[in-house]
Structures are given as C-alpha cells and as structure tokens.
Amino acid sequence: KHLDELASALRKSHGEATEAQSEADMLKQQVRLLQREVADKSELTERQLKAERDLRAEIFQTQAKLEKVAEQHQNEARRATGFAEKATTAEERLRRIEQLEAQLAEEQAGA
After folding, report:
1. pLDDT confidence band for 1 (50 / 70 / 90)
2. Quick one: CA torsion of 38, 42, 44, 46, rounded to 10 degrees?
3. CA distance 26 to 34
4. What Cα–Cα distance (Å) separates residue 59 from each residue in 64, 97, 101?
5. Long-range CB contact pairs, 104-109, < 8 A, 24+
6. What CA–CA distances, in Å, run from 40 to 6, 36, 60, 88?
7. Separation of alpha carbons 76 and 70, rounded Å
8. How confident is the model at residue 91, as a pLDDT?
9. The dihedral formed by the CA atoms of 57, 63, 66 and 72, expressed in degrees to the nearest 10
10. What is the DSSP string of 24-49?
C-alpha cells in the first residue's frame, strides 16, 4: 500500500512537473514574441526619429536658402532703385539739353 501511495505521488509530481514545464515553455514563447515585438517597435521608432531629424535638417537648409534668396532680392531691388534714379536724372538732363539747344537755336535765329 505504501508503495502504491509513493507511485501515485510520483505520478502526480511527474504530471505537475510536465504541466509546469509546458507552462514555462509557453511563457518562454510569449517572452520571445514580446521581445520581437519590442525590437520591431524600436526599429520603427528609430526610423521615425531619423525621418524627423532628416526633415528638420531639410527645413533648416530650405530656410537658409530662402533667407539667401530674400537677401538677393533686396539687393536687386536696391540696384533697380539706383538704376531708376539714374535713368530719371539722365532723362531730366536730356530734357534740359533739348531746352538749351532750342533756346540757342532761337537766339541764333533771332540774331
């Protein structure tokens, strides 16, 4: 009878050990799946951060180009204003020359 009890206890312990091993195997598989999921999400996060850094760098470069173009535009506008002022002065001088020539022609015709 004692031998039967020991055999029964041994079978029960073996069954519990098998069940515990199955549960441990299942938990190991879950851990592997979670590790893979964490690795995938980490990779995705890194890609997103890299894309964000790249976009920020591109924005700063574009902003610098825009500022340079704006400065060039201001310089060209100043040059154009200078040319317009010189053209106005030249036109005024031409009119004055024409007036003086007409006046001289009148004086010569009257003399």
Report:
1. confident
2. 180
3. 12
4. 9, 56, 62
5. none
6. 50, 6, 30, 71
7. 10
8. 97
9. -100
10. HHHHHHHHHHHHHHHHHHHHHHHHHH
End-to-end CA distance of the chain: 162
Beta carbons within 10 angstroms of residue 13's beta carbon: 10
The length of the chain is 111
CA separation for the pair 46, 40 (Å, rounded): 10
Predicted confidence (pLDDT) at residue 29 exceeds the cutoff of 80: yes
Q: Give CA–CA dist 88/71, Å, rounded.
A: 26
**Mean per-residue pLDDT, 42-53:** 97
Give the per-residue pLDDT at 4: 86
| Closest CA relative to residue 16, chosen from 26, 24, 28 | 24
Instruction: Please report which confidence band the pLDDT of residue 3 belongs to, taking 50, 70 and 90 as the band edges.
Output: confident
Structure tokens at 7: 């055999």
pLDDT tens-digit map of 51-71: 999 999 999 999 999 999 999
